[in-house]
Amino acid sequence: MLDADGVLISGRPTDGQLWTHKLLEDLGIDPELLAQEFFALEWQDVVTGRRDLYPALSKSLKRLDISVSAEELISYWFKMDSRIIETVLADCRIARKSGNQVYLATNQEHLRAKYLMETLGLKSEVDGIVYSAEAGFQKPHPAFFSHAADVTGREPNEMLLVDDAQANIDGARNAGWRAVHWDGREPLSDILQRNIDQ
Known about the structure:
mainly alpha, Rossmann fold, two-stranded parallel sheet, about 50% helix
C-alpha cells in the first residue's frame, strides 16, 4: 500500500515544487487565502466523500470574489500536482513482476483519484487504489485501514504501508499493519525487499 502524494507523486511536473508555487502569478489566487477559505473550511468533507469538489470549491471561490471558475482551478491544480517519481514507479513495476500486489492508499477526493489512475495512467501500473472519499475516512482513521483490508481481501498482518506522514504510519501499525516511514532516502525496492517475503 503506497501513499500517492509525497511518495509516488511530488508536485509540479517541471520542478517538483508545490502545485500552488505560482498560483498567484498564474491565476491570481493567493494560496494562503485559498487554504483559509477552501482547505480549512471545506476540504475535510470533500476528501471524505461527504461533499463534491466542484460545488465546495465554487463556494470558496465565490467568498474570495475570484473570477476563476472551479473547473479552471481544478484543471490547473491536477496538472500542477502530477509529477511521478520515476524511480518509485520503476520499483513498483519490479514488485508487481515479483508477484506482489501494489495499491495506492491515499487521502483523495473522487476526481483526483480518477485523474491519478486514468489521466496519469497509474491504472496500468498498480493493482488498484484505496482512497479516503471512497472509504469515507482519511488516514490515519482506523476505518480507512479496515476498508483497505476489505478491498484487497488481505489480513492486516499481510499489509505494508509506505507513507511520508508519521501519523499514517502510526495508524497503520495500530491497525496491525507493517508500515515504513518514507523520507525518499532509501529506495522503495530496498524497503520492499526488507519487509516482504519474496
